[in-house]
Amino acid sequence: MISVAVANSNLEYFNQIVLVTYLVILGLAITNGVRHIAEIIKYRHESRPYFLHTFWSITLLIFLFQFAEHVWGFRQVSNWNQLHLLALMINPLLLYLATEILFPNYDGRSFVDVRFHYYHKRRWFFGILAVLPVANFVTDSFLLRDWSVGSYEFFSLVFIGIFIVLAMTERPVLHVVLSTINVPVFIIFSVLFSTNYADPDYRDRTNSAKTTKNTPVFVVNDARKIITD
Predict the structure, then answer these.
(1) Beta-strand relationship, 112-113 and 47-48
(2) How far apart are CA 229 and CA 76, in angstroms?
(3) Rounded distance between C-alpha atoms, residue 120 and residue 122, angstroms
(4) CA–CA separation, 82 vs 40, rounded Å?
């Protein structure tokens, strides 16, 4: 009876505090990104668009929506506390910073060279994206109590390598090549580590899963394992 009460208390904490805080930060990032894209369209005559900037703007928005789904995988974490909450907020905060850095400021009066801004801010933008998989692994492992590595971490290393090179180089050819490579890698990654929570059968299998080293459970865009009591 006590274990059921504790489980319900943890779920309430997740739904009322963790989920709300996470989605508020992520929602601000999504709003920020959409607002800046609208500004690019609005001030298209006062700016010089750049196709790589447009590509990463769209990619970043996809990241944001995927992380909105990703947080659902933490609903069964037990013993929530403030340290766990702060650890989980690292990802949405990094994504918010990325959206703020990627887009230039438009005032409607001065000309904006988007291409110049893209390369000028590349170290900060891609540096944050390179840190994101590391922060995600540490956060997931800490909260889900599983430090094992697998195919998910392999893809993370590929993304980290791509982002580091993009952060370090200003050569347009490398940016085009690596951005192009990122597309099929990201599609394969999304297919392998995505789930359909609208499927009742999947929810039943997930909710009945036990945490063992031999029982992997795919958790919303993550190959980490769900902890259940």
Answers:
(1) parallel
(2) 8
(3) 6
(4) 39
Closest CA to 73 of 193, 178, 225, 209: 225
Find tokens 């000309």 and name the residue. Answer: 111
b/e map 56-90, b = 16+ CB within 10 Å: bbebbbebbebbbebbbbbbbbbebeeebbebbbb
SS3 218: coil
Write the DSSP string, 107-119: -SSS-EEHHHHHH
Contact 70, 23 (CB under 8 A): no
List the alpha helices (DSSP H) in the chain.
2-13, 19-42, 51-70, 82-88, 90-102, 114-120, 122-144, 151-168, 172-192, 200-207
Q: What predicted TM-score, i.e. pTM, was given to this entire model?
A: 0.78
For residues 204 and 202, give the distance between their C-alpha atoms in angstroms, rounded to a whole number. 5
73-112 per-position pLDDT tens digit: 787 777 788 888 888 999 999 999 999 999 988 776 678 8
Gap between the Cα atoms of 199 and 202, Å rounded: 5
